[in-house]
Design goal:
The protein is 45% helix and 15% strand. The protein contains 10 helices and 8 strands. An 8-stranded parallel barrel has the order 1-2-3-4-5-6-7-8, surrounded by 5 helices. Helix 1 packs parallel to helix 10 (239-258) and helix 7 crosses helix 9 (215-225). The two termini are 18 Å apart. The protein has helices at 14-30, 45-52, 79-85, 95-98, 104-116, 135-147, 179-196, 199-204, 215-225, 239-258; strands spanning 2-6, 35-39, 58-62, 89-92, 120-125, 160-163, 206-210, 229-232. It is globular. Bound molecules: 2-phosphoglycolic acid. The site of 2-phosphoglycolic acid (PGA) has 13 residues, from strand 8. 2-phosphoglycolic acid binds next to strand 8.
Length: 259
Amino acid sequence: MLIVANWKMNPVTKKEAETLTKEIKKIVQKNKNATAILCPPALYTDIVGKTIGRVNNLFLGAQDMSWQEKGARTGHISPLMLKDMGALHTIIGHSELRELGESDEQINKKIRTALTYGITPIVCIGEKERDENGFYLGVIHKQIETALEGIAKKDYTDVIFAYEPIWAIGKSAREAMTPHDLYEMSLYIKKVVSELSSKTIAMSMKVLYGGSVEGQNAGALFEGGSVDGFLVGHASIDPGEFEAILKNVKEASARKAQD
Ligand code: PGA
């Protein structure tokens, strides 16, 4: 069970980032069934990493990464910098960056670079809207295909896909995706990967869900959605919600184990 916390552009002071990390650390240490990765704004990478220290189910990650090692890239973060800070996971291709113009090709370059440097890419895919004719499935198909272009099939399992339908991001649990629809999408993603490689590879790939995951819907989404975890935005900067997500997922996986 993997929970990736995408803090986005929050909180707005270093002190708050430190306090939030301390609170999350306590929660995660009590919930050994889950592994959490904190992806703070790049400026807080150092303080968050130091505050995490050595905990075997809590790690530091990043929200984005450049495909270049160093040089003329104003405002970007190099894979070498991330490694130096101890961040071995990075979100890539978040819809908020795609919206600002990031293309599938640029995302593919970032994924390939991350794999070269031993950083696990958490690749966001997701449609803007749903249509009756199912064209959104083609959108997801293309995103997966271009994301994996030029990557050796044996390395596919080092990529984590985070399915984040854009229409479900930043809302509330009530407006998030239903477990049933998520189940269908998770199977679809694995089917596409399987066509590009093999069933064995597709089945061992991790797929996360993101889009208004809160304490209230986390258990049902985990139980019915057939995902390996969540990419959590607004609820990840609220320790109470974060704790509720972990607790409800724990209960859901106990129920699943009994079935
Ligand atoms: P949300 O964000 O949980 O606030 O919907 C998820 C994301 O954008 O990664």
